[in-house]
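A.,

Following up on our hallway conversation. C-alpha coordinates first:
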Protein backbone atom coordinates (compact mmCIF):
# COMPACT_ATOMS: atom_id res chain seq x y z
CA UNK A 1 0.00 0.00 0.00
CA UNK A 2 1.31 3.42 -0.92
CA UNK A 3 2.32 5.52 2.10
CA UNK A 4 -0.45 7.98 3.02
CA UNK A 5 0.27 11.69 3.03
CA UNK A 6 -0.27 13.59 6.30
CA UNK A 7 -3.86 14.61 5.57
CA UNK A 8 -4.87 11.15 4.35
CA UNK A 9 -3.34 9.84 7.57
CA UNK A 10 -5.34 12.33 9.68
CA UNK A 11 -8.54 11.31 7.87
CA UNK A 12 -7.78 7.60 8.25
CA UNK A 13 -7.24 8.04 12.00
CA UNK A 14 -10.51 9.98 12.25
CA UNK A 15 -12.47 7.43 10.16
CA UNK A 16 -11.39 4.56 12.41
CA UNK A 17 -12.55 6.31 15.56
CA UNK A 18 -15.73 7.72 13.95
CA UNK A 19 -16.69 4.10 13.23
CA UNK A 20 -16.01 3.06 16.82
CA UNK A 21 -18.04 6.06 18.08
CA UNK A 22 -20.80 5.22 15.55
CA UNK A 23 -20.90 8.85 14.39
CA UNK A 24 -23.57 9.75 11.85
CA UNK A 25 -22.22 10.03 8.27
CA UNK A 26 -23.17 13.73 8.03
CA UNK A 27 -21.26 14.49 11.24
CA UNK A 28 -18.24 12.68 9.77
CA UNK A 29 -18.57 14.69 6.57
CA UNK A 30 -18.24 17.92 8.60
CA UNK A 31 -15.25 16.71 10.60
CA UNK A 32 -13.27 14.90 7.85
CA UNK A 33 -12.64 18.22 6.04
CA UNK A 34 -11.65 21.74 7.09
CA UNK A 35 -14.55 24.22 7.25
CA UNK A 36 -12.49 26.94 5.51
CA UNK A 37 -9.26 26.96 3.48
CA UNK A 38 -7.14 29.79 2.10
CA UNK A 39 -4.42 29.41 -0.54
CA UNK A 40 -2.74 32.61 -1.72
CA UNK A 41 0.35 34.26 -3.20
CA UNK A 42 2.44 36.82 -1.35
CA UNK A 43 4.65 39.15 -3.44
CA UNK A 44 7.69 40.37 -1.52
CA UNK A 45 10.33 42.92 -2.53
CA UNK A 46 13.71 41.29 -1.87
CA UNK A 47 16.82 43.14 -0.68
CA UNK A 48 18.36 43.09 -4.19
CA UNK A 49 15.31 44.87 -5.62
CA UNK A 50 13.77 41.80 -7.27
CA UNK A 51 10.22 40.67 -6.57
CA UNK A 52 9.65 37.13 -5.28
CA UNK A 53 6.22 35.55 -4.94
CA UNK A 54 5.63 33.08 -2.09
CA UNK A 55 2.89 30.50 -1.69
CA UNK A 56 0.90 30.96 1.55
CA UNK A 57 -1.82 28.91 3.27
CA UNK A 58 -4.27 29.09 6.15
CA UNK A 59 -6.68 26.30 6.99
CA UNK A 60 -9.47 26.60 9.60
CA UNK A 61 -10.60 23.08 10.36
CA UNK A 62 -13.33 23.48 13.00
CA UNK A 63 -14.24 26.28 15.39
CA UNK A 64 -17.25 24.79 17.17
CA UNK A 65 -15.49 25.02 20.57
CA UNK A 66 -13.95 28.48 20.06
CA UNK A 67 -11.63 30.54 17.80
CA UNK A 68 -9.35 28.56 15.47
CA UNK A 69 -5.87 28.14 16.86
CA UNK A 70 -2.65 26.89 15.32
CA UNK A 71 0.83 27.75 14.16
CA UNK A 72 2.27 29.19 10.97
CA UNK A 73 5.12 27.18 9.49
CA UNK A 74 7.81 28.50 7.18
CA UNK A 75 9.05 25.35 5.42
CA UNK A 76 10.42 24.63 1.96
CA UNK A 77 8.41 21.40 1.67
CA UNK A 78 5.10 22.80 2.98
CA UNK A 79 2.02 21.56 1.10
CA UNK A 80 -1.70 22.30 1.31
CA UNK A 81 -2.32 18.75 2.56
CA UNK A 82 0.27 19.09 5.33
CA UNK A 83 -1.44 22.28 6.50
CA UNK A 84 -4.87 20.58 6.30
CA UNK A 85 -3.62 17.68 8.40
CA UNK A 86 -2.04 19.95 10.98
CA UNK A 87 -5.22 22.07 11.22
CA UNK A 88 -7.30 18.92 11.77
CA UNK A 89 -4.94 17.73 14.50
CA UNK A 90 -5.20 21.17 16.16
CA UNK A 91 -8.97 20.71 16.53
CA UNK A 92 -8.38 17.41 18.35
CA UNK A 93 -5.46 18.83 20.31
CA UNK A 94 -7.44 21.79 21.71
CA UNK A 95 -10.38 19.52 22.49
CA UNK A 96 -8.26 16.86 24.20
CA UNK A 97 -6.48 19.53 26.25
CA UNK A 98 -9.97 20.88 27.05
CA UNK A 99 -9.21 24.46 26.07
CA UNK A 100 -12.03 26.44 24.41
CA UNK A 101 -10.44 26.75 20.95
CA UNK A 102 -10.79 25.18 17.51
CA UNK A 103 -8.21 24.03 14.96
CA UNK A 104 -6.24 26.05 12.43
CA UNK A 105 -2.84 26.00 10.75
CA UNK A 106 -0.96 28.08 8.23
CA UNK A 107 2.23 28.14 6.33
CA UNK A 108 4.45 29.64 3.68
CA UNK A 109 6.54 27.58 1.27
CA UNK A 110 9.98 28.98 2.08
CA UNK A 111 13.23 28.07 3.79
CA UNK A 112 13.48 31.00 6.24
CA UNK A 113 17.24 30.53 6.50
CA UNK A 114 17.53 31.84 2.92
CA UNK A 115 15.96 35.21 3.85
CA UNK A 116 17.46 38.31 5.43
CA UNK A 117 15.79 39.79 8.52
CA UNK A 118 14.13 42.50 6.41
CA UNK A 119 12.85 39.97 3.87
CA UNK A 120 11.41 37.84 6.69
CA UNK A 121 9.64 40.85 8.15
CA UNK A 122 8.14 41.82 4.77
CA UNK A 123 7.01 38.23 4.19
CA UNK A 124 5.36 38.08 7.64
CA UNK A 125 3.58 41.38 7.06
CA UNK A 126 2.59 40.15 3.56
CA UNK A 127 0.92 37.05 5.04
CA UNK A 128 -1.13 39.28 7.36
CA UNK A 129 -2.01 41.72 4.55
CA UNK A 130 -3.75 38.82 2.78
CA UNK A 131 -5.30 37.11 5.82
CA UNK A 132 -6.18 39.90 8.27
CA UNK A 133 -9.91 39.95 7.56
CA UNK A 134 -10.14 36.25 8.35
CA UNK A 135 -8.12 36.13 11.56
CA UNK A 136 -8.54 37.83 14.97
CA UNK A 137 -8.74 37.11 18.71
CA UNK A 138 -12.34 35.87 18.42
CA UNK A 139 -11.87 34.21 15.03
CA UNK A 140 -8.49 32.62 14.33
CA UNK A 141 -5.32 33.06 16.39
CA UNK A 142 -2.06 31.93 14.74
CA UNK A 143 1.21 31.18 16.60
CA UNK A 144 4.82 30.22 15.83
CA UNK A 145 5.71 26.74 14.60
CA UNK A 146 8.50 25.18 12.54
CA UNK A 147 10.60 27.94 10.99
CA UNK A 148 8.80 30.85 12.67
CA UNK A 149 9.77 32.78 15.80
CA UNK A 150 8.30 35.04 18.52
CA UNK A 151 9.81 38.05 16.70
CA UNK A 152 7.84 37.12 13.58
CA UNK A 153 4.63 36.98 15.67
CA UNK A 154 5.50 40.46 16.95
CA UNK A 155 5.71 41.78 13.36
CA UNK A 156 2.51 40.02 12.38
CA UNK A 157 0.63 41.33 15.42
CA UNK A 158 1.90 44.83 14.60
CA UNK A 159 0.73 44.57 10.98
CA UNK A 160 -2.71 43.36 12.10
CA UNK A 161 -2.98 46.15 14.68
CA UNK A 162 -2.08 48.75 12.02
CA UNK A 163 -4.62 47.38 9.54
CA UNK A 164 -7.42 47.25 12.12
CA UNK A 165 -6.39 50.51 13.80
CA UNK A 166 -6.41 48.89 17.25
CA UNK A 167 -3.63 47.41 19.38
CA UNK A 168 -4.64 43.75 19.36
CA UNK A 169 -2.08 41.56 21.15
CA UNK A 170 -4.46 38.59 21.32
CA UNK A 171 -4.47 38.04 17.52
CA UNK A 172 -1.16 36.13 17.57
CA UNK A 173 0.27 34.12 20.43
CA UNK A 174 3.87 33.08 20.97
CA UNK A 175 4.81 36.77 20.97
CA UNK A 176 8.04 37.93 22.57
CA UNK A 177 8.07 38.67 26.31
CA UNK A 178 7.38 42.36 26.84
CA UNK A 179 5.41 42.38 23.56
CA UNK A 180 2.38 40.60 25.01
CA UNK A 181 3.99 37.16 25.25
CA UNK A 182 3.53 34.74 28.14
CA UNK A 183 6.18 33.47 30.50
CA UNK A 184 6.81 29.76 29.99
CA UNK A 185 5.87 29.61 26.28
CA UNK A 186 9.40 28.60 25.23
CA UNK A 187 9.39 25.65 27.63
CA UNK A 188 5.69 24.79 27.33
CA UNK A 189 5.60 22.16 24.57
CA UNK A 190 8.73 20.28 25.64
CA UNK A 191 7.80 20.35 29.33
CA UNK A 192 4.25 19.26 28.41
CA UNK A 193 5.78 16.21 26.69
CA UNK A 194 7.64 15.43 29.90
CA UNK A 195 4.55 15.86 32.14
CA UNK A 196 2.91 13.20 29.94
CA UNK A 197 5.98 10.92 30.09
CA UNK A 198 6.00 11.32 33.89
CA UNK A 199 2.34 10.26 34.15
CA UNK A 200 2.89 7.37 31.71
CA UNK A 201 5.80 6.15 33.82
CA UNK A 202 3.66 6.27 36.98
CA UNK A 203 0.99 4.25 35.15
CA UNK A 204 3.55 1.71 33.91
CA UNK A 205 5.30 1.68 37.32
CA UNK A 206 8.65 2.72 35.86
CA UNK A 207 11.34 4.51 37.85
CA UNK A 208 12.21 7.57 35.78
CA UNK A 209 15.65 7.89 37.42
CA UNK A 210 16.61 4.51 35.94
CA UNK A 211 15.32 5.36 32.46
CA UNK A 212 16.95 6.79 29.38
CA UNK A 213 15.56 8.50 26.30
CA UNK A 214 16.55 9.11 22.67
CA UNK A 215 15.19 12.21 20.98
CA UNK A 216 14.77 13.17 17.35
CA UNK A 217 15.17 16.91 16.81
CA UNK A 218 16.83 19.64 18.80
CA UNK A 219 14.50 22.54 18.12
CA UNK A 220 12.09 24.20 20.52
CA UNK A 221 10.17 21.05 21.49
CA UNK A 222 13.11 18.65 21.70
CA UNK A 223 15.32 21.07 23.64
CA UNK A 224 12.89 21.41 26.55
CA UNK A 225 11.84 17.76 26.39
CA UNK A 226 15.53 16.90 26.83
CA UNK A 227 15.96 19.41 29.67
CA UNK A 228 12.76 18.21 31.35
CA UNK A 229 13.70 14.54 31.05
CA UNK A 230 17.01 15.20 32.77
CA UNK A 231 16.01 17.91 35.27
CA UNK A 232 12.43 16.99 36.19
CA UNK A 233 12.54 13.21 35.89
CA UNK A 234 16.18 12.60 36.76
CA UNK A 235 16.58 10.41 33.68
CA UNK A 236 19.33 10.25 31.06
CA UNK A 237 19.06 11.43 27.45
CA UNK A 238 21.48 9.33 25.41
CA UNK A 239 21.20 11.28 22.15
CA UNK A 240 19.47 13.92 20.08
CA UNK A 241 19.26 13.89 16.30
CA UNK A 242 19.06 17.07 14.27
CA UNK A 243 19.30 18.42 10.78
CA UNK A 244 22.54 20.12 9.79
CA UNK A 245 21.70 23.07 7.54
CA UNK A 246 25.23 23.32 6.20
CA UNK A 247 25.74 19.64 5.32
CA UNK A 248 22.09 19.20 4.31
CA UNK A 249 21.76 16.00 6.29
CA UNK A 250 20.87 14.89 9.80
CA UNK A 251 23.25 13.67 12.52
CA UNK A 252 22.65 11.95 15.84
CA UNK A 253 24.67 13.46 18.70
CA UNK A 254 25.39 11.14 21.61
CA UNK A 255 27.67 11.14 24.59
CA UNK A 256 28.95 8.52 27.01
CA UNK A 257 26.98 8.96 30.25
CA UNK A 258 24.25 11.02 28.55
CA UNK A 259 24.06 14.35 26.77
CA UNK A 260 23.98 17.69 28.57
CA UNK A 261 20.95 19.44 27.05
CA UNK A 262 21.81 22.86 28.49
CA UNK A 263 25.27 22.67 26.91
CA UNK A 264 23.79 21.67 23.53
CA UNK A 265 21.28 24.51 23.91
CA UNK A 266 24.21 26.92 24.16
CA UNK A 267 25.61 25.75 20.78
CA UNK A 268 22.43 25.37 18.68
CA UNK A 269 21.25 28.00 16.21
CA UNK A 270 17.69 29.31 15.96
CA UNK A 271 16.81 26.64 13.35
CA UNK A 272 17.87 23.72 15.58
CA UNK A 273 21.25 22.98 13.95
CA UNK A 274 23.91 22.05 16.52
CA UNK A 275 27.42 23.44 16.01
CA UNK A 276 29.22 20.22 14.98
CA UNK A 277 32.73 21.36 15.75
CA UNK A 278 31.89 22.59 19.25
CA UNK A 279 29.95 19.40 20.00
CA UNK A 280 32.82 17.19 18.84
CA UNK A 281 35.28 19.22 20.88
CA UNK A 282 33.09 18.60 23.96
CA UNK A 283 33.26 14.82 23.37
CA UNK A 284 30.04 14.23 21.44
CA UNK A 285 29.93 11.38 18.91
CA UNK A 286 28.27 12.00 15.56
CA UNK A 287 26.29 9.15 14.03
CA UNK A 288 23.90 9.03 11.04
CA UNK A 289 20.67 10.99 11.47
CA UNK A 290 18.48 7.91 11.95
CA UNK A 291 20.68 6.31 14.64
CA UNK A 292 18.47 7.76 17.43
CA UNK A 293 15.64 5.35 16.65
CA UNK A 294 17.59 2.15 17.34
CA UNK A 295 19.06 3.17 20.71
CA UNK A 296 18.58 0.87 23.74
CA UNK A 297 16.36 3.21 25.71
CA UNK A 298 13.04 3.04 27.55
CA UNK A 299 11.65 6.24 25.96
CA UNK A 300 11.70 7.50 22.37
CA UNK A 301 10.72 11.10 21.72
CA UNK A 302 10.29 11.91 18.02
CA UNK A 303 10.21 15.73 18.16
CA UNK A 304 11.24 16.88 14.68
CA UNK A 305 9.04 16.09 11.68
CA UNK A 306 6.03 14.04 10.59
CA UNK A 307 6.18 10.45 9.30
CA UNK A 308 9.53 9.62 10.90
CA UNK A 309 8.48 6.39 12.62
CA UNK A 310 7.01 4.43 9.72
CA UNK A 311 6.65 0.90 8.30
CA UNK A 312 10.36 0.75 7.59
CA UNK A 313 11.97 2.59 10.52
CA UNK A 314 9.73 1.12 13.25
CA UNK A 315 11.47 -2.24 12.89
CA UNK A 316 14.69 -0.65 14.13
CA UNK A 317 13.18 0.13 17.56
CA UNK A 318 14.88 -1.65 20.47
CA UNK A 319 12.88 -4.22 22.48
CA UNK A 320 13.74 -2.14 25.57
CA UNK A 321 11.47 0.74 24.45
CA UNK A 322 8.34 1.05 26.64
CA UNK A 323 7.12 4.57 25.80
CA UNK A 324 6.97 6.60 22.59
CA UNK A 325 6.17 10.24 23.35
CA UNK A 326 5.17 12.05 20.17
CA UNK A 327 6.62 15.54 20.57
CA UNK A 328 6.27 16.33 16.84
CA UNK A 329 3.00 16.46 14.94
CA UNK A 330 2.24 13.19 13.14
CA UNK A 331 5.65 11.55 13.66
CA UNK A 332 4.24 7.99 13.67
CA UNK A 333 2.36 6.39 10.74
CA UNK A 334 -0.53 3.88 11.12
CA UNK A 335 1.97 1.05 10.40
CA UNK A 336 4.08 2.23 13.35
CA UNK A 337 0.91 2.33 15.49
CA UNK A 338 0.18 -1.28 14.62
CA UNK A 339 3.69 -2.26 15.61
CA UNK A 340 3.39 -0.42 18.96
CA UNK A 341 0.14 -2.24 19.74
CA UNK A 342 1.55 -5.66 18.85
CA UNK A 343 4.68 -5.06 20.89
CA UNK A 344 3.08 -3.48 23.96
CA UNK A 345 4.71 -0.08 23.46
CA UNK A 346 2.80 2.71 25.26
CA UNK A 347 2.36 5.51 22.73
CA UNK A 348 1.44 9.03 23.85
CA UNK A 349 -0.25 10.45 20.74
CA UNK A 350 0.94 13.77 19.32
CA UNK A 351 -2.15 15.85 19.90
CA UNK A 352 -2.12 14.96 23.60
CA UNK A 353 1.65 14.82 24.09
CA UNK A 354 2.54 18.16 22.46
CA UNK A 355 -0.58 20.08 23.61
CA UNK A 356 1.55 22.07 26.10
CA UNK A 357 2.35 24.71 23.48
CA UNK A 358 -1.23 25.47 22.56
CA UNK A 359 -2.30 25.33 26.20
CA UNK A 360 0.27 27.99 27.02
CA UNK A 361 -0.86 29.97 23.96
CA UNK A 362 -4.36 29.83 25.39
CA UNK A 363 -2.96 31.16 28.70
CA UNK A 364 -1.25 33.92 26.70
CA UNK A 365 -4.51 35.08 25.10
CA UNK A 366 -6.25 34.90 28.50
CA UNK A 367 -3.50 37.16 29.92
CA UNK A 368 -3.79 39.49 26.88
CA UNK A 369 -7.53 39.76 27.52
CA UNK A 370 -7.02 40.49 31.23
CA UNK A 371 -4.00 42.72 30.55
CA UNK A 372 -2.52 41.03 33.63
CA UNK A 373 0.44 38.66 33.42
CA UNK A 374 1.37 35.59 35.47
CA UNK A 375 4.87 34.55 36.59
CA UNK A 376 6.64 31.66 34.86
CA UNK A 377 6.02 29.46 37.93
CA UNK A 378 2.30 30.22 37.81
CA UNK A 379 2.13 29.46 34.08
CA UNK A 380 4.05 26.17 34.37
CA UNK A 381 2.00 25.07 37.35
CA UNK A 382 -1.26 25.72 35.47
CA UNK A 383 0.24 23.92 32.45
CA UNK A 384 1.16 20.88 34.52
CA UNK A 385 -2.37 20.73 35.96
CA UNK A 386 -3.97 20.96 32.49
CA UNK A 387 -1.62 18.41 30.86
CA UNK A 388 -1.90 15.95 33.74
CA UNK A 389 -5.67 16.11 33.69
CA UNK A 390 -5.73 15.73 29.87
CA UNK A 391 -3.42 12.70 30.09
CA UNK A 392 -5.64 11.02 32.70
CA UNK A 393 -8.88 11.76 30.82
CA UNK A 394 -7.35 9.86 27.88
CA UNK A 395 -5.91 7.07 30.01
CA UNK A 396 -9.30 6.59 31.73
CA UNK A 397 -11.04 6.43 28.34
CA UNK A 398 -8.46 3.93 27.12
CA UNK A 399 -9.10 1.69 30.15
CA UNK A 400 -12.89 2.11 29.96
CA UNK A 401 -13.19 1.40 26.23
CA UNK A 402 -10.22 -0.99 26.15
CA UNK A 403 -8.67 0.97 23.30
CA UNK A 404 -5.21 2.20 22.56
CA UNK A 405 -4.15 5.71 23.73
CA UNK A 406 -4.41 7.33 20.28
CA UNK A 407 -7.95 6.04 19.77
CA UNK A 408 -8.85 7.04 23.34
CA UNK A 409 -7.53 10.58 22.75
CA UNK A 410 -9.58 10.78 19.54
CA UNK A 411 -12.65 9.55 21.40
CA UNK A 412 -12.28 12.18 24.12
CA UNK A 413 -11.61 14.94 21.57
CA UNK A 414 -14.19 14.03 18.92
CA UNK A 415 -16.87 13.56 21.55
CA UNK A 416 -16.21 17.08 22.90
CA UNK A 417 -16.26 18.67 19.40
CA UNK A 418 -19.44 16.82 18.36
CA UNK A 419 -21.15 17.93 21.60
CA UNK A 420 -20.16 21.56 20.87
CA UNK A 421 -21.49 21.28 17.30
CA UNK A 422 -24.76 19.79 18.61
CA UNK A 423 -25.10 22.53 21.24
CA UNK A 424 -24.63 25.17 18.53
CA UNK A 425 -27.14 23.42 16.26
CA UNK A 426 -24.62 22.63 13.50
CA UNK A 427 -25.43 18.92 13.35
P1 LIG B 1 12.10 23.63 15.24
O1 LIG B 1 12.13 24.20 13.89
O2 LIG B 1 12.43 24.48 16.41
O3 LIG B 1 13.05 22.36 15.30
C1 LIG B 1 12.96 21.29 14.42
C2 LIG B 1 14.14 20.38 14.74
O4 LIG B 1 14.05 19.20 13.92
C3 LIG B 1 15.50 21.01 14.44
O5 LIG B 1 16.40 20.70 15.46
C4 LIG B 1 15.93 20.33 13.15
O6 LIG B 1 17.33 20.28 13.04
C5 LIG B 1 15.33 18.96 13.37
N1 LIG B 1 15.23 18.17 12.15
C6 LIG B 1 14.77 18.54 10.93
N2 LIG B 1 14.86 17.53 10.05
C7 LIG B 1 15.40 16.49 10.73
C8 LIG B 1 15.76 15.16 10.37
N3 LIG B 1 15.57 14.70 9.15
N4 LIG B 1 16.32 14.38 11.33
C9 LIG B 1 16.53 14.84 12.58
N5 LIG B 1 16.20 16.08 12.97
C10 LIG B 1 15.64 16.88 12.06
O7 LIG B 1 10.64 22.97 15.44
P2 LIG B 1 9.84 22.69 16.77
O8 LIG B 1 9.10 23.90 17.13
O9 LIG B 1 10.73 22.05 17.78
O10 LIG B 1 8.76 21.63 16.24
C11 LIG B 1 9.08 20.25 16.05
C12 LIG B 1 7.79 19.48 15.81
O11 LIG B 1 6.91 19.69 16.90
C13 LIG B 1 7.00 19.86 14.57
O12 LIG B 1 6.33 18.71 14.10
C14 LIG B 1 5.97 20.86 15.10
O13 LIG B 1 4.84 20.95 14.28
C15 LIG B 1 5.66 20.20 16.42
N6 LIG B 1 5.11 21.10 17.45
C16 LIG B 1 5.77 22.22 17.85
C17 LIG B 1 5.22 22.99 18.86
C18 LIG B 1 5.93 24.19 19.42
O14 LIG B 1 5.41 24.79 20.37
N7 LIG B 1 7.09 24.56 18.93
C19 LIG B 1 4.00 22.64 19.44
C20 LIG B 1 3.37 21.48 19.02
C21 LIG B 1 3.94 20.72 18.03
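Then the amino acids I'd put at each of the 427 positions:
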Amino acid sequence: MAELNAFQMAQAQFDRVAKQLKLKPEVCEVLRWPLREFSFRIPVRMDDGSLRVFQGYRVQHNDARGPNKGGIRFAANETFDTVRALATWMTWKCAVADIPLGGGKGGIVVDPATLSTGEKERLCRGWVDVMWKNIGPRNDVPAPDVGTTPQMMGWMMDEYSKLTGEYTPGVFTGKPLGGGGSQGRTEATGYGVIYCVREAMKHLKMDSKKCSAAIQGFGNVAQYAAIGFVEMLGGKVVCVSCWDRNDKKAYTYSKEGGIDPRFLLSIVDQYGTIDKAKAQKAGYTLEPGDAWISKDVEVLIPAALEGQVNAETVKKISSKVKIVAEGANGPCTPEADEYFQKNGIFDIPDFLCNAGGVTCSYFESVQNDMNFYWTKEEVLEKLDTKMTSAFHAVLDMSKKEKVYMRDAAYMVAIDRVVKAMELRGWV
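The chain has a mean pLDDT of 96. Curious whether your intuition agrees with the design.

B.
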